[in-house]
Amino acid sequence: MADTYHHEPPYTIGVICGSIAASSINRRLANALIKLAPEALQCSFIEIDTLDLYDRDRDDNYPPEAVALKQSILDADGILIVTPEYNRSIPGALKNAIDWASRPYGENALSRKPVGIIGASPGAIGTAVGQQHLKSILSYCNAPMMNEIEAYITFKEEDYAEDDTVTNESTKEFLQTYMRTFDDFVRRVLTVLPQQG
C-alpha cells in the first residue's frame, strides 16, 4: 500500500543557521544544502540575529521578532538546523532562539515539528558534541529528529565555490543523500504526526 501524507509536496522547510556571524561557514553549508535539496523541499532561512535575550517576564507580551520566529516555525513543515559547535555545545544565539520558540509552557512551536541537524567545523570531529547537546534540548521540546544520517562536516574551503555550490563530488553526493533522507523523514513524520491546524 502506498504511503499517504497529510498533504502533497512541496514542503516548506525553515532553515536556521546557529551562527549569526557574517563569515559563518555554517551559513555557507546551509546555502549549499538549499541548492542540493530535492524539488519537494522549498527551503528558506529563518533568521535569529535580531532576537533579544529570552526573558520569561515577557511571556505575556512577546516582542515582534519572537512572534515572527514562532510563526515561521509553525508555518514550516520541517526545520533544518545548521550549526557550529561552541565550547562543546551550541551557540548562545541558537539556544536563545529555541527558548523563544518553545515558551511559554503550552505554546511550544517546535512540538511535533520534524527537525534535521547538521553542522560544519574546520576540525576533524565537526560539531559532533554540540549536536548531541542540541538533540537533548530538542528532545525535551518534543521535536522528532532525523537520526538515520549523522552529519558532522569538516569544512574545507576548496570544496565550495564562491556561490556556495559544492565542487567536491564526494561531499556533494553525501549532502544530496542527506537532503533526500531529510525529505523522506519529513514526509514520514507528517504521516504519523499530522500538523494541527
| Rg calculated over all Cα atoms | 16 Å
**Biggest sheet, spatial arrangement of strands:** 2-1-3-4-5
Percent of sequence in beta strands: 5-15%
Secondary structure tally, helices: 5
Q: Could you say which overall geometry the principal axes of the C-alpha atoms support?
A: globular
Largest sheet: 5 strands, parallel
Mean pLDDT over all positions: 93
pLDDT under 50 segments (min length 5)? Answer: 1-5
Number of strands: 5
Termini, distance in Å?
A: 27 Å
Assign a percent range to the helix content.
25-40%
Helix-strand topology string? EHEHEHEHEH
Structural class: alpha/beta
Report on this model:
This protein is of the alpha/beta class and 197 residues long. Helices cover 37% and strands 14% of the residues. A five-stranded parallel β-sheet has the order 2-1-3-4-5, sandwiched between helices. Strand 1 (11-17), helix 1 (25-36) and strand 2 (41-45) form a beta-alpha-beta unit. The longest helix is centred in the C-terminal third of the chain and has 24 residues, at 169-192. The protein is globular. The two termini are 27 Å apart. The relative contact order is 0.19.
Features:
5-stranded parallel sheet, disordered N terminus, alpha/beta, 5 helices, 197 residues
